[in-house]
TrEMBL record:
Biological source species: Rhynchospora tenuis
Residue ranges of the TM segments: 12-32, 102-122, 143-165, 185-209
Listed name of the protein: Very-long-chain (3R)-3-hydroxyacyl-CoA dehydratase
Record's bilayer topology term: Multi-pass membrane protein
Function recorded in the entry: Catalyzes the third of the four reactions of the long-chain fatty acids elongation cycle. This endoplasmic reticulum-bound enzymatic process, allows the addition of two carbons to the chain of long- and very long-chain fatty acids/VLCFAs per cycle. This enzyme catalyzes the dehydration of the 3-hydroxyacyl-CoA intermediate into trans-2,3-enoyl-CoA, within each cycle of fatty acid elongation. Thereby, it participates to the production of VLCFAs of different chain lengths that are involved in multiple biological processes as precursors of membrane lipids and lipid mediators.
Keyword Membrane applies: yes
Keywords: Endoplasmic reticulum, Fatty acid biosynthesis, Fatty acid metabolism, Lipid biosynthesis, Lipid metabolism, Lyase, Membrane, Transmembrane, Transmembrane helix
EC number: 4.2.1.134
GO BP terms: fatty acid elongation; sphingolipid biosynthetic process; very long-chain fatty acid biosynthetic process
Catalytic activity: a very-long-chain (3R)-3-hydroxyacyl-CoA = a very-long-chain (2E)-enoyl-CoA + H2O
A single MF term (Gene Ontology): very-long-chain (3R)-3-hydroxyacyl-CoA dehydratase activity
Predominant location: endoplasmic reticulum
InterPro entries: Tyr_Pase-like_PTPLA
Length: 221
């Protein structure tokens, strides 16, 4: 029975990883095509639907970690996926004024390259039981460049959105009300920006540690 459930788990995770991989491939192709034909201002419109679908599918990774389907720590997965969902839905989807900025191009390319490598790595691992050394190296090395470019783009787009957030009542809950509670999306967005300050170096250091472990095993093999 344990063997059966293990097989079902591997099949499910293989399908999940390759399905999301396909979504990110689509995002990258659409982004490059839009950049080549129309420039950075056209990128968001070209990738909007596959970007939203592929990024939102990452919520399942949090669930996978919570129920023990994968060994990835939720403490590392949750902030990264949470910040990306905030930018995808809370900034780009909610404030169209940000969509034509060149940072959208760097964001989309950084995210898609990262995820194409990551999902193919895990997809191959689940489907075949191993990953080639070159893919393992890419998985644990490309973040050295793509993480800073992605984070810079995320922070930049949130900052660019701040004046539009302040001028809008989107997602705000004003007093007086029967719950005696208020919520201001502008200050919440400022708080998210503040979290990036300690959070980004922490995540980068964590990934450097993971890289050291993974590549040391590769050298020993």
């Amino acid at each position: 029975m344990a063997s059966f459930f293990s097989t079902v788990k591997r099949i499910y995770l293989a399908i999940y990883n390759w399905a999301v991989f396909t979504g990110w491939i689509q995002v990258l192709i659409f982004a490059i095509k839009a950049l080549n034909e129309s420039g950075p201002a056209a990128v968001y419109d070209a990738v909007e639907k596959p970007l939203q679908l592929a990024q939102t599918a990452a919520i399942l990774e949090i669930i996978h970690g919570l129920i023990g389907l994968v060994r990835s720590p939720v403490s590392a997965t949750l902030p990264q996926i949470g910040s990306r969902l905030f930018v995808t839905w809370g900034i780009l989807h909610s404030f169209p004024e940000t969509r034509t900025h060149i940072l959208v191009s760097s964001l989309v390319i950084s995210w898609s390259l990262t995820e194409i490598i990551r999902y193919s790595f895990f997809g191959m691992k689940e489907a075949l039981g191993f990953t080639p050394s070159w893919l393992l190296w890419l998985r644990y090395s490309t973040f050295l460049l793509l993480y800073p470019t992605g984070i810079t783009s995320e922070v930049g787009l949130i900052y660019i959105a701040l004046p539009f957030i302040k001028a809008s009542d989107n997602f705000c809950f004003r007093m007086p009300n029967k719950w005696n509670f208020s919520f201001d999306y502008y200050f919440a967005s400022l708080a998210v920006l503040g979290i990036y300050v300690p959070g980004s170096p922490h995540m980068y250091t964590y990934m450097l540690g993971q890289r050291k472990k993974a590549l040391s095993k590769l050298k020993a093999a």
